[in-house]
Amino acid sequence: MDALLALDQGTSSSRALVFDRSGRLLAAAQRELTQHFPQPGWVEHDAAEIWEGQLACAREAIAKAGVKPAAIGITNQRETVVLWDRRTGQPLHKALVWQDRRTAEFCEDLKRQGLEPRIRALTGLVLDPYFSATKLRWLLDHVDGARARAERGELAFGTVDSWLLWKLTDGQVHATDASNASRTLLFDIHRGDWSDELLGIFGIPRALLPEVRPSAGAFGTAAEFGAPIAGIAGDQQAALFGQAALAPGQAKNTYGTGCFLLMHTGAQARSSAHGLITTRAAQVGAVPQFALEGSVFVGGAVVQWLRDGLGLIRSSAEVQALAESVPDSGGVTLVPAFAGLGAPHWRADARGALVGLTRGSTRGHIARAAVESIAFQSAELLQAMQNDGAALTELRVDGGASANDLLMQFQADLLGLPVLRPKVIETTALGAALLAGIGAGVYGSPEEVGSIWQLDRAFEPRMSRDEAGARLAQWDRAVRQVLAE
Ligand SMILES: Nc1ncnc2c1ncn2[C@@H]1O[C@H](COP(=O)(O)OP(=O)(O)O)[C@@H](O)[C@H]1O
Ligand SMILES: O=P(O)(O)OC[C@H](O)CO
């Protein structure tokens, strides 16, 4: 049997999943990842914990499935920066996570120098701390001796895929795929190569960078599992692939730590006039693929905050029952701008707000407002995409928080569109497994994997458009309040 092992290194947890060639899940293992918040606006992960947790999950999933994988696919939280010593394989610092805002002032400096339009033209991205380049520069400037060592070629930079690939191949391979490279602010998405101009702007030595390859193909061998690593893609691009959204105009929204709405635009890079970014989609073969993306920084993470920050619930899954304990949010709106606001506002300095409280407000209302905030932010992304001319007739969804029926129904209600949840909501992992299967020759073509997608449940809109409009207007008012501060 051709089993495919997917390593899904997310922001909240590391997971390993084993699928058979028909996309059926054979076994899974998961480890939650420690979040470090050393200062307000800073978010770090321990790169050693990422590796050890991911390896432990892979071993456990393979043991449970009782098979040897034919190929391994890696998919990962994107933009997060790992800097390590090529000789010892030791990280020089904790990984700076995509949600980390410490470089906001540096981004503002570059904007004041008028560099954003040029950077945007080359990368498809906006100047925001979200992306890797300014985080990497911060490490080079703040870790003793790092810049000189980087210039001497002693250090390696990688997004989390590169870090895992390096560890899995015992330091033999330093590479990434185009979808991950396109999140760094250092990669020219049109030419498909690192850009010397961008390296100059951000002060990054080229010697640090991994080689960039298509998303399916031979990346190296993981000796421990006796299998080739044959697929790599950033988690949102992997999810787009796993949703069988392979053709221009097809879209998905993933509800994980953040929310990410991506629409495939084929071999054409399309730019947005409404706050979305242009990114590389997973690439099979030589022809680059593109997507339009809206990125929300705090999606399911707002539920983690209810759990860990406020202690309102003990597990994320409990939020649905608590939110359903009240008929509506009672006029309470939560804008979870805990890591600034991403698309379509791009305000690194924004802070969160809880508005509309009365003496009658309860934990239930706050939980409901938290769940609704995930759908409101996603609705803003879809609106931006429609304003850019996308004609979406349905939305495919996935990710941990898409298990929440209340959230999915509210999402359909706000959008006035059917929300389609597939049987496998671990679409990110499935996408990575399918890319690996293509890369290792288990499947003949991407089209062959398209037939694997199966519907679990369609959420049809039930709310009147008037009511949805009123709710969206209430959200809009709260966001404007946050942006005005
Ligand atoms: N039933 C639920 N309702 C709302 N949010 C949930 C639910 N279950 C999990 N989540 C949230 O989903 C996120 C985990 O989703 P996942 O896809 O595993 O994320 P990631 O890939 O970012 O690690 C967490 O932020 C968690 O709080
Ligand atoms: O960890 P996730 O699944 O929320 O994804 C994180 C994104 O890749 C950040 O761009």
Structural summary, described in words:
With 485 residues, the protein is α+β, with helices and mostly antiparallel strands. Helix content is 35%, strand content 22%. It has helices at 47-65, 104-112, 116-123, 132-142, 146-151, 160-168, 178-181, 196-202, 235-242, 301-309, 319-324, 363-387, 405-415, 427-439, 446-450, 465-484; strands at residues 3-9, 13-19, 25-32, 44-45, 69-76, 82-85, 95-96, 155-158, 175-177, 187-188, 193-194, 211-213, 216-222, 227-234, 251-255, 259-264, 277-280, 290-296, 333-335, 353-355, 395-398, 419-422, 455-459. Strands 17-18-16-15-21-22-23 form a 7-stranded mixed beta sheet. A 6-stranded mixed beta sheet has the order 3-2-1-5-14-13, with helices on both faces. Strands 4-7 form a two-stranded antiparallel sheet. It is globular and about 60 Å long. The model has no long low-confidence stretch (mean pLDDT 95). SN-glycerol-3-phosphate binds next to helix 9.
